[in-house]
Design goal:
There is one protein chain. By secondary structure, this protein is mainly beta. It is built from 2 helices and 10 strands. The strands form 2 sheets. Strands 3, 5, 6, 8, 9 and 10 form a 6-stranded mixed sheet that branches. The radius of gyration is 25 Å and the shape is globular.
Length: about 160
């Protein structure tokens, strides 16, 4: 993702992927390529956007899920800032796109820069969230659990072990 104002500011925000499971970590880096304006601070946000309805009856609701100040003070050309944003601490749901063409839940990474005159510059990039499948036990672990259960039954009821 690139943020820029021609001949004044050019920033690159690299992150490791665009699809994350709900307990994943967003890892990235922000590079300052050209800085000719006085930036006061920078923040990163996760925004959830729910959309319902169709056509002229469409209703959008935005919610800021997370907001972190990642820089305070003016950056210099060539500077880079590492980003690590853990998703597991938030109550997130998977991305849903146009369910019955009437309902969507989408997430965005929002990079916001505020200059010394309190002007805000931002860039949004959509990310996709998904629910990771639960790991199921293997046949081996099922057999192991059965053996442990039989052993526990024998210790609590010694007459059951004599019968078998």
């Amino acid at each position: 993702m690139e943020v820029g104002i021609e001949d004044c500011l050019h920033i690159e925000f690299e992150y490791n992927k665009s699809k994350y499971h709900l307990k994943d970590v967003i890892v990235g880096k922000i590079y300052f390529i050209l800085v000719r304006i006085k930036i006061k601070h920078m923040e990163i946000q996760i925004i959830k956007r729910e959309t319902t309805g169709t056509g002229p009856n469409t209703y959008n609701e935005n919610e800021t899920i997370a907001k972190y100040e990642i820089m305070d003070g003016a950056p210099v050309r060539g500077e880079s800032i590492p980003i690590r944003l853990f998703l597991s601490g938030y109550e997130l749901s998977p991305t849903l796109r146009e369910i019955n063409k009437k309902f969507s839940v989408r997430y965005f990474l929002n990079l916001v820069l505020i200059d010394e005159e309190d002007r805000r510059y931002f860039k949004q990039q959509e990310i996709t969230l998904f629910r990771k499948a639960e790991k199921r036990g293997t046949t081996h672990s099922h057999a192991m659990n059965s053996a442990i259960t039989r052993h526990a039954d024998r210790e609590t009821n010694p007459s059951a072990s004599k019968a078998s």
